[in-house]
Amino acid sequence: MITHHCLHPSVSKPSLSFLSSSSPPFLQHLSFLPTSPSITKPVLVHSVKPLHVKCSSTNPTSQSHPDHAPPISTLKIAIIGFGNYGQFLAKTLVSQGHIVLAHSRSDYSHVAKKLGVSFFLNPHDLCEQHPEVILLSTSIISTEQVLRSLPLQRLKRSTLFVDVLSVKEFARNLLLDSLPPDFDIICSHPMFGPQSAKQSWKDLFFVYEKVRIGNEFSRVQRCEQFLGIFQSEGCKMVEMSCQEHDKLAAGSQFMTHTVGRVLDMLGLESTPINTKGYETLLDLVENTCRDSFDLYYGLFLYNKSALEMVERLDLAFDALRNELFGRLHHVVRKQLFENGEKVKSVHDSSYQNGAASAFSSNALRYQDVTIPYEFKGKISGSVDDNSKLKVAIVGFGNFGQFLAKTLARQGHSVLAYSRTDYRDAAQKLGVSFFSDANDLCEEHPEVILLCTSILSTEKVLKSMPFQRLKRSTLFVDVLSVKEFPRNLFLQHLPPEFDILCTHPMFGPESGKNGWNELPFVFDKVRIGNDERRVARCNSFLDIFAREGCRMVEMTCAEHDWHAAGSQFITHTMGRVLEKLQLESTPINTKGYETLLKLVENTAGDSFELYYGLFMYNVNAMEQLERMDFAFESLKKQLFSRLHGVLRKELFGDSEKLEVLQEKSVRKNGAALSSSPESVKIS
């Protein structure tokens, strides 16, 4: 029996379903726990159907002047919680001419003065000013404590309370439970902040529900005036119930923050060969990790739909990993039993001789990132006759045709061969198509450009009639992994053939509007010293330089190390999210739009391409394990904090717990175990 450290079964993970079971009475007020017994059901990876909501946007003719002339009727608004977000809102409120008051536990009087805001350290003093609107801008976790500490009796009856929390059912229930029945309530969520709205609020979502508004004309008018603050700034106004909001937000906002934090734990860094998809992941990490963990934890704790999303993400990642390992297991079995060949090692069979030695790949991790050499080619519109090449494309599918279009336009002579008959497509592109590899090779092309899939490359290469080619023919590949084709070429090509390993880090979709500034990575693996052969290699590279590509020269080992941490991570996250069947919602954030775009881009590639990135890059397995570890670590953070909440409900403050421990010691004559199960409450 042959074993390998990569071919292990998934470690069983503790179920999260305990949070869905019935809870003791003292825990029933927590929003994520049902108040009645329920049967735990398995969580399926499925999508949430979009809900119907009422949306409106500002008519261009009604938008406020850039100078923000004072509105017809000003409001006296008291902001409770004058941190970053409270100050962010205050700036616009003041610019619109409203009277703004503020209270916070921290002394922000100097900041308030600069903004034209009246600051009060004592909430009694603030409430005695009789503001028309109380705008709660506290953190999710502190909102209940702050609300219950306000001297509501000092406010006018019918005061309008508004919250701006990222979760809505919790806020709605809290306001209904804590406020006198004659107070008005709006639950709102401006789905933007100081960073995403630093230019303007135009076209950004403002979600709200009129939870309780009195029938009097003045109260209805006050409600509309408050909403008009955001509408006049160009916000997209979306009216929906708090329940609808939280269901959609769990699938968009919470998912976005979760993915961002998982990626942050991986310590992603910019590489010399960033793809557009990887750039979006880096932006996502930067945007989500500016927010505190308390905010993220609040999204989890106070949105009852968030737990299901954690379960679904967990299941999706496991499903993808099992799919990869299932395919890998099939390859190993084929090597063992179908070919009847002895397997030198499972490592060799797994990577098809495409992996560099462990020493070389590990050594890269401890080196500083090499500054890549950038090829300086002439960026000209035409090619002189001396630079024109006869290029034979082997594998004339989508990518082969994509490259052929540019080669033919530049004036090169292009031939093509493929097992599938593409003669019609070739004719339209001005390419000579051959259905027999012998006929193609007898045309003596100067360059053989392999555009096959990763999985079929070895088979195609071995089937080529090398004897019909000119000696010193240049072989070029365009695979997404580089050590595998490098070793394959060196092993199977005659020693007099030249070898150039390349990776155009773009395709028909990302390169449809041109190749300018898109990275083209290459390694001159074996180029003869003859001046003609050197010139031929440079002429081929110049094809991409002329199109404006960013030419990056690096070794195949360096490429695969960077690609495993960027390209493979990008495709993995895209495919995990694809299994969740994410859909656009009426309240998409910019971060969620990034995830949807990522899914769209990666799902367009075949699973064979993704599997090839995993199978033929020696670093991919480590990255997969790191992603798994990062997700498990994030869950541990969430549930450790949750455990603290539950312990507080069980034991109250630490002094009460110590009293219980001391009583137990006296009674039993032994120290009490630190395990929560050992604490007995009479």
Could you characterize the architecture of this molecule?
The protein has 682 residues and is an alpha/beta fold. Among the domains are: 55-239, NAD(P)-binding Rossmann-like Domain (Rossmann fold, 3-Layer(aba) Sandwich); 385-553, NAD(P)-binding Rossmann-like Domain (Rossmann fold); 654-682. Helix content is 44%, strand content 12%. The strands form 2 sheets. Strands 1-9-8-7-6-5-2-3-4 form a 9-stranded mixed beta sheet, with helices on both faces. β8, α6 (217-231) and β9 form a beta-alpha-beta unit. The longest helix has 33 residues, at 306-338. It comes from Gossypium darwinii.
Q: Report the major sheet.
A: 9 strands, mixed
> What characteristic shape results from the CA principal axes?
elongated
The CATH class designation of the domain at 55-239 is Alpha Beta
CATH topology of the domain at 55-239: Rossmann fold
Oligomeric status: single chain
Q: How many individual β-strands? A: 17
Instruction: Write down the Rg.
Output: 32 Å
> Portion of residues in helices?
40-55%
Q: Class by helix and strand content?
A: alpha/beta
Overview in brief:
InterPro entries: NAD(P)-bd_dom_sf, PDH_N, Prephen_DH, TYRAAT1/2, TYRAAT2_C. The chain is an alpha/beta fold and 682 residues long. It contains 25 helices and 17 strands.
